[in-house]
């Protein structure tokens, strides 16, 4: 490399290693990123997800303990949607909304509908060593899916549903596109 990599370079390499499952280089990138930015949770989170994808749950637990033992905090994911001049914010497994029961009932119907249409959930984004049914539940209760369900309930048919998320989308195309096709939303 013609120049010394900065934190962005190391984080990019680490993220690429996560995508391609290269733990050896990923560990090196994570250690290098930690040297430059010791308070950046990305090193722990990305390395942990690489280990989880390879089924190395002992390594995942070790990294989670290290993260918990430090003052470093991972920003929780949340999604929001605007409806009638009010912003509605959702986080994973959120039940604080007065519309929670409706949202979860809608999510259950949505999930059944897209499964019938051939959707196969991507379990690789569930980074926990749990049973299949729990992985499916975890996938179905992500913040963006709660926001989409809210939009399908309250936003009039024919209008687009716009969801904003503070982090990377867990399933960038499969579920939103499947829902758009199923419910004729843009």
Task: Spell the H/E element sequence.
Answer: HHHHEEHHHEH
Overall tally of domains:
2
Low-confidence parts lasting 5 or more residues at pLDDT below 50?
none
The total strand number stands at 3
Give the integer mean of the pLDDT values: 82
Tell me the helix content: 40-55%
- From the alpha carbons, calculate the radius of gyration and give it in angstroms: 19 Å
How would a textbook summarize the main sheet?
3 strands, antiparallel
- Quaternary class: single chain
Euclidean distance between termini CA atoms: 43 Å
Q: Find the structural class using helix and strand composition.
A: mainly alpha
Which outline best applies? globular
Strand content: 5-15%
């Amino acid at each position: 490399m013609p120049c010394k990599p900065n934190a962005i370079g190391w984080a990019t390499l680490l993220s690429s290693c996560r995508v391609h499952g290269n733990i050896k280089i990923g560990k090196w990138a994570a250690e290098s990123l930690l040297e430059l930015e010791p308070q950046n949770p990305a090193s722990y989170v990305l390395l942990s997800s690489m280990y989880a994808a390879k089924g190395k749950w002992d390594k995942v637990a070790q990294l989670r303990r290290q993260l918990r033992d430090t003052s470093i905090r991972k920003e929780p994911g949340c999604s929001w949607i605007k409806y009638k001049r009010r912003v509605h914010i959702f986080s994973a497994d959120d039940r604080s909304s007065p519309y929670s029961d409706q949202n979860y009932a809608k999510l259950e119907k949505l999930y059944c509908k897209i499964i019938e249409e051939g959707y196969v959930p991507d379990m690789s984004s569930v980074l926990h060593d749990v049973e299949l049914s729990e992985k499916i539940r975890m996938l179905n209760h992500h913040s963006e899916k709660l926001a989409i369900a809210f939009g399908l309930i309250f936003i009039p048919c024919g209008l687009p549903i716009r969801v904003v998320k503070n982090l990377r989308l867990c399933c960038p195309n499969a579920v939103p596109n499947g829902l758009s096709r199923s419910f004729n939303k843009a």
